[in-house]
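Why predict the complex rather than its parts? Because the way molecules touch one another can change local conformation, and only a joint prediction can capture that. The input here totals 794 residues.
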Amino acid sequence: MALLQIHDPSAAPRPIGIDLGTTNSAVAYVTSLGEAVAITDCDDAALVPSVVHYAADGTTIVGARAKALSLDFPEDTIASVKRFMGRGADDPETRRLGPYRFARSADNVVRFELAGARRVSPVEVSAAILRELKERAEDELGRIGGAVITVPAYFDDAQRQATKDAGRLAGLEVLRLLNEPTAAALAYGLDKKRNGTFAVYDLGGGTFDVTILAIEDGVFEVKATGGDSQLGGDDMDRALAEHVLAALGDDPASASASSKRYALETARAIKHALTEHEVVESALAHAGREATLRTTREDLAQAILPLLKRTGVATKRALKDAGVTADAIDGVILVGGATRIPAVQRYVATLFGREPLTDLDPELVVAMGAALQADIIAGQSTNDALLLDVLPLSLGLETMGGVVERILPRNTSIPAAAAQVFTTYADGQTGFELHVVQGERELASDCRSLARLTLRGIPPMGAGLARLEVRFDVDADGILHVQARELTTNLEQRVEVRPSYGLDEASIERMLEEAYEAGASDLERRRLAEKRVEAARIMLAARKALEEDGDLVDGEERARIERALGALGEAHDGEDHRAIDRRVEGLERATRDLAERRMDRAIRGALRGRGLGAVEESTQDARGIEKAHG
Amino acid sequence: MPSAFDILGLPARFALDERELERRYRERARALHPDRVGGAAIGDAVDLNAAYRTLKDDLTRARALLDARGSGLAEEGRREDPELLVTVMELREALERARDRGDETAIAALATRARGDYEAARDRLAAALDANDHESAERHLARMRYYRRLLDEVDAIEDANLVG
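Output of the joint prediction:
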């Protein structure tokens, strides 16, 4: 039982740091002793799974509870939403990223279609995760101040903008978007008080970043950054999941949503188990099919080698951009859950010719760094570290013939600005159309399209006479602002670059208002909503059991289970979450024997003596892993 | 408007102590970065970063120096050196052939040669600037620019090979 905390209402609000991750998120703050601490829940868990479940009754559940529901409600439970941030609905990558239903839209914004005809955009899903973290922080700290939210260094302008919007939507004052590797280095550098050139190798759930930075006397200067915003632990799961599906005789291309989800969850469990064990034997059981799968560390290493090689390419490029060789690196910092995998650590050691540093928890180090930075920006810190970051990808304009004119090259220190003068190509041209792109390719069509904007009302002149000055300003968050001015007439237009597939300012304002109107979250209401979902899940499991293994129960037992089901159904529709709790227990008691016989039938002797609900719950993560040989 | 040298408090000359440049940059960033100034105009930080970028690179540093000294040659008005054009064109063709053959040794050899030529031009540029011979300086700077472009192409080929 946690001690009750008494908050001093006059205490200054505390700034927080948030790592909004693909798979897991975390929130941290800096104690009065200057130490960065991750906030844990009542189960002592600091990581909040970045999973949001949208229930049919309109409630939203975030974190471990949502994750537990993903197997039964694959389409209404959004995982790895970060990979959708800033992407257009027409992006082919979007369709590949999960078993979701997408709503048709005219504005090219991705929207998930959920139970009860609800629709949410990735920004709203991310905001739900941020709100959960904010509430955790408020429970722990009382009043909170602004927040520093981290993003992969390699995130482009649209992805950064989307993240900032999510922060606002969650009711946070976003002090700064901070690059994840820089945050990690801050956490490390301040702990160790070391000077030198460091590399941060960050392999998260969905993104890979590598950053080369110099630390001198508390100034962290990023020299170069690179990576792949579409590469991470999820891809490893996917590579392994194909083995799982194959073992079950399923074709990855035509497998059902629930089979895919089962295979992914199993693959993730195998991957985690292989961090501890050399070999993992899994008993697979899904949709009436069973199989056993034996996976060795070497199998995993082989499956992920193509992915690791891609990280190697990005790393070599970043080293080259920074003008250093691998042997000039004084230390390699590991970030991200995927760097716990022995094969990844081995690969990194070979890449740099030295063992990477692993003193800090690779899954919390980013949130800790973000908290330190929040503290510094809020001016509460005695620490005078300064982070000097760079633009991750070149910014430019499309010119005639679809060629890109680079205005700001990648790895430019930010904040930064640059201006360039363009002219007309046709006689009497009265407007300019500007196409802002980001990327390293020569042709605009190969780069990321950020925005199109038009400058009108230029008096007609001969071709080549008008002088259009376009100015790019990148702020310290890495977000671009564009300003265009016709020099002969001084006609000026300031344009906020809002990506065409992002949310426009009006919809964000509207969502913000809606969020305020809904008011602060009422704990009772929330608990009721959570219990309802739990009840629905257990009822579903019990009905499934009766349907699939009906021959295991006699008439009397069946009647008892049906009664318990009816009672729970009533409580589910009522308003008392305690009643739901009691009746869940009742149903568990009624199904305990059946669960046992089912388990006997299915996994022979495992997990004996527990109610159906408990078994379902505990097998959610572990299912398939029957035993691991050390 | 203060020159890049003024902003970083460094003497206006081509020779550069890189460590000193970095030290000055860090020192000024401490005073000007938005994280320190807190929401104020970011103009000074932008100018500092631009000045740092200008001085770090040989080509832009030389240009800044020539501009500051009022070297009269406008960007477009500079005379092309026909001999240089021929040499660079030959080198570029050789590079393309080597790339098409996938001949990494030949690419490396061409890169070494271009780098050597670049460095030789840079030494002459430095000497010309010290002697206040702006016309020669402009000529050497043009050479450096051509060789740099060639080296960028080598970079692009090497990058493509990394992925391959």
